[in-house]
Amino acid sequence: VRNHDPEIMLEAFQLVRLGEDDVKSKFPAMYNAFTYGAPPHAGIAPGVDRMVMLLAGEDSIREIIPFPMNKNAQDLMMGAPSFVEPKQLEELNIICTKKEEDTDL
Length: 105
Description:
Elements (H helix, E strand, L loop, with lengths): L5 H9 L5 H7 L1 H9 L10 H10 L29 H6 L14
């Protein structure tokens, strides 16, 4: 069963050196949901998309998901992932140390 207790959530984040204020500011939606009483959940529900796949007789969930990713985790509708322009990296103050290689992107 996944965590649904805000106190346990805070303890887990303390393991990675995030205090209560950090958790509340960086994960407010999750913290508030747990505070108001999220029910215990284990994540075993099949989901609507999987049920539609079974009802449609498809072998792969990719056949019924509106925006599926291929086996290489690429979103062909959005062209993602893709290379980031240097200007975008500069705006976010990110420095890449790995050299660009020839890829299929």
